[in-house]
Automatic annotation (TrEMBL):
One of its GO terms (biological process) is proteolysis. Belongs to the peptidase S1 family. CLIP subfamily. Residues 55-287 form the Peptidase S1 domain. The keyword Ribonucleoprotein does not apply. Keywords: Disulfide bond, Hydrolase, Protease. This is Serine protease 44.
Length: 296
């Protein structure tokens, strides 16, 4: 298995073997305690490692996008939105996906996150999904924490956080969105995680395109980023999911699926929350929990 898969499973490496330089022979004792995802300060080395790809756009492979999370209404497992795994304690989604759950009220039922999901129509997958409930964080009125720390697995991994100017529209970028939403405006929701390659738009060009829909007074905020092309777009059911782009073999979450006009219409991009614009707030919230946990 891969070196980090061995280590985070509580295993011991006793030789290097296999087809890649990072493949190892691993011994995992029956009573081994899995190790949590590495601290935030080290994530640049371990985050955003994508799984195998069949090179066929439209449908993902199992564990190909291991940070993609399904957000469920806990009492009935009702699918709400997509989300992404930031670290062992936190997932990230769009505000409109959870605003009905704020302020948190135990009587309304908890939110649940489903990690490592692929085909929602079956439970017979070789890599099982993992369900964890959430509770409202006292750190901020806009966040929820997972009930316990997440353990890294072949189908569960954290996504990387971008830095300013990592991905500039107009330059070559390899970016994808993922989700179980509709493939187009008339189709049913997908039962298998789908993937769509999308181009990034310059904000000025995006604003001009959206003014044709919303009127000349519309202003696109700088906390948004646009992506998509005709036939390549997020759709109903994809909200809250990640827009990720590749750099040096790692995948960084550039946006959160927010809203759009139809699905994949000509000259009508989708609008995403720009993750980098909230980097300081995200770091403050996630690192506070990590610090509190390490000193508990």
């Amino acid at each position: 298995m891969e070196y980090w898969t061995c280590i985070t499973s509580g295993g011991q490496v006793y030789s290097y073997c296999g087809l890649s330089a990072s493949s190892v022979c691993c011994f995992v004792a029956l009573n081994a305690k899995p190790v949590g995802i590495l601290p935030v300060s080290n994530r640049v080395k371990t985050c955003g490692k994508k799984g195998a790809d069949n090179a066929k756009d439209g449908q993902a492979e199992m564990s190909e996008w291991p940070w993609h999370v399904a957000l469920l209404e806990g009492s009935e497992d009702l699918y709400l939105c997509g989300a992404s795994l930031l670290d062992e304690w936190w997932v990230m989604t769009a505000a409109h996906c959870v605003d009905e759950y704020l302020p948190y009220d135990a009587a309304t039922g908890s939110l649940k996150v489903r990690l490592g999901e692929y085909d929602v129509s079956t439970t017979a997958e070789p890599l099982k999904h993992e369900d964890l409930t959430t509770y409202h964080s006292l750190t901020t009125s806009l966040s929820f924490q997972i009930e316990r720390s997440v353990k890294q697995k072949p189908n569960i991994e954290v996504v990387c956080m971008p830095k300013a100017n990592d991905f500039v529209p107009g330059k070559p970028n390899k970016c994808y969105i993922t989700g179980w939403g509709r493939k187009d405006e008339v189709s049913e929701h997908s039962v298998v995680l789908k993937e769509i390659k999308v181009p990034l738009w310059d904000n000025r060009e995006c604003q001009n395109a959206l003014k044709l829909q919303f009127g000349t007074s519309y202003n696109l905020p700088n906390t948004a980023i646009c992506a998509g092309s005709e036939g390549n777009d997020a759709c109903d059911g994809d909200g809250g999911g990640p827009l990720v782009c590749e750099k040096d073999g790692h995948w960084y979450q550039v946006g959160i699926i927010s809203f759009g006009i139809g699905c994949g219409r000509k000259n009508t991009p989708g609008v995403y929350t720009r993750v980098e614009a909230f980097k300081d707030w995200i770091q403050e919230v996630t690192q506070k929990k990590s610090h509190d946990h390490n000193h508990a």
